[in-house]
TrEMBL record:
FMN binds at residues 125-127, 289, 304-308, 331. HAMAP family: Chorismate_synth (MF_00300). GO terms for biological process: amino acid biosynthetic process; aromatic amino acid family biosynthetic process; chorismate biosynthetic process. Keywords: Amino-acid biosynthesis, Aromatic amino acid biosynthesis, FAD, Flavoprotein, FMN, Lyase, NADP. GO terms for molecular function: chorismate synthase activity; FMN binding. It comes from the Bacteria. This is Chorismate synthase. The gene is aroC. Its EC number is 4.2.3.5. The lineage of its organism: Bacteria, Bacillati, Bacillota, Clostridia, Eubacteriales. GO terms for cellular component: cytosol. Pfam families: Chorismate_synt (PF01264). InterPro entries: Chorismate_synth, Chorismate_synth_AroC_sf, Chorismate_synthase_CS.
């Protein structure tokens, strides 16, 4: 049941990119909560396609409709159903795709798993479009986490070979994380913005694409969430992050860099500061033994370059069992990163809220 996720918060995403609509059923939100619809709308707009020349030219308004679980401006506590209409599909771009899988997309494994009955138009259920309902649910999760002053924010850490600065892994203010959400291109070092945008436009011009890394911080995290081994906080968050199409790597804290450090360089020594237990560094990204330490949770999410590029590629005709060449036409993101930032925040918020409910129940929310 790959479209359903969660233990204490349960969600099911549904729909296809070129079908009538996409959406989500969300269960586990307590009764009596007034949704911050403006915040949800703003997060959806940060992700929406067609906003500028750095993204796909498909135009979607991504307005949402609530079909259930909301009455007199309050949650009822029963399953909530949200629907987002698809409005600007060009399905003719995909006529060829039925038997001719795009290299690097879900077309071929989708054909095999669903015996050729998969909706191949626009990648169908495999499309990055399905991240819109995740952003919607993640905005609700963020609204609830803010009750406890827990904030989540991300920036584009790199695009292709151009790097932004990194978060200070110890001192991060909520204002910094929230103000990143107001930037249309969220990075820390403004001087890199133009270079990153140029890398995207150059790739687009070459009928090519680029990938990159998003860095995320979560602050004011209670110590003691998660479990050792199979329900470690890393596993629970990584499960969500790897659900995002095009994510091919996740690392926590100093991640792979820790493997090249000595113990004396990668240590997180303890101190008591103003009655609070802190670590002097945060190479472990706020998680030890699978359990939160109370330090900020920090992780990096790596996105591959968009697979649908216009350059000629070698592929196959599945029905004819022949090798052929393919030139993909259509409206594709030359880089997924700018639109994926709110998606990473959303799934992070959902994963974290699920862990908090597991340990502390729901009563603090209402
Ligand atoms: C927000 C977002 C937008 C995306 N846009 C495109 C796109 O325009 N063209 C494309 O081929 N892939 C796009 N992708 C990536 C594909 O959906 C993804 O590579 C594909 O489903 C295969 O999944 P995998 O890369 O995780 O193996 C996008 C992904 C996301 C999250
Ligand atoms: C529609 C969205 O992005 C789409 C994600 C996507 C893919 O293959 O993942 C391919 C493109 O679809 P289409 O060919 O129909 O334009 C993108 O536009 C969206 O994010 O809302």
């Amino acid at each position: 049941m790959s479209a359903t996720w969660g233990n204490y918060l349960k969600l099911t995403i549904f729909g296809e990119s070129h079908g009538k609509a996409i959406g989500i059923v969300l269960e586990g939100v307590p009764p009596g909560i007034t949704l911050d619809k403006d915040f949800i709308h703003r997060q959806l707009q940060r992700r929406a396609p067609g906003q500028n020349k750095l993204s796909t030219q498909r135009q979607e308004k991504d307005q949402f409709e609530i079909l259930s679980g909301y009455f007199k401006d309050k949650t009822t506590g029963t399953p909530m159903t949200f629907v987002i209409a698809n409005q600007d599909q060009y399905s003719r771009d995909y006529t060829k795709q039925k038997n001719i899988p795009r290299p690097g997309h879900g077309d071929y494994p989708g054909y095999v798993k669903y015996h050729g009955f998969n909706d191949y138009r626009g990648g169908g259920h495999f499309s990055g479009r399905l991240t819109a309902p995740l952003v919607l649910a993640g905005a609700i999760a963020q609204q609830l986490l803010k009750i406890r002053d827990i904030h989540i924010g991300s920036h584009i850490k790199s695009i292709y070979n151009i790097q932004d600065e990194q978060f200070n892994k110890i001192h991060i203010q909520s204002e910094q994380l929230e103000s990143l959400k107001d930037k249309d291109f969220p990075i820390l070092k403004n001087a890199q913005e133009q270079k990153m945008k140029e890398a995207i436009l150059e790739a687009k011009n070459d009928l090519d694409s680029v990938g990159g890394v998003i860095e995320t911080a979560m602050i004011n995290i209670p110590a003691g969430l998660g479990s050792p081994f199979f329900d470690s906080v890393e596993s629970r968050l990584a499960h969500m992050l790897f659900s995002i199409p095009a994510v091919k790597g996740v690392e926590f804290g100093s991640g792979f860099d820790l493997s090249t450090m000595k113990g004396s360089q990668g240590k997180d020594e303890y101190r008591v500061e103003e009655g609070q237990i802190k670590t002097l560094a945060n190479h472990n990204g706020g998680i030890l033994g699978g359990i939160t330490t109370g330090m900020p949770i920090i992780f990096n999410t790596a996105f591959k370059p968009t697979p649908s590029i216009g350059q000629r590629q070698r592929t196959i005709d599945i029905e004819k069992m022949e090798n052929i060449d393919l030139e993909i036409i259509g409206r594709h993101d030359p880089c997924i990163l700018p639109r994926a930032v709110p998606v990473v925040e959303a799934v992070g918020a959902l994963g974290l809220l699920d862990l908090i409910i597991e340990r502390e129940g729901r009563s603090w929310m209402s």
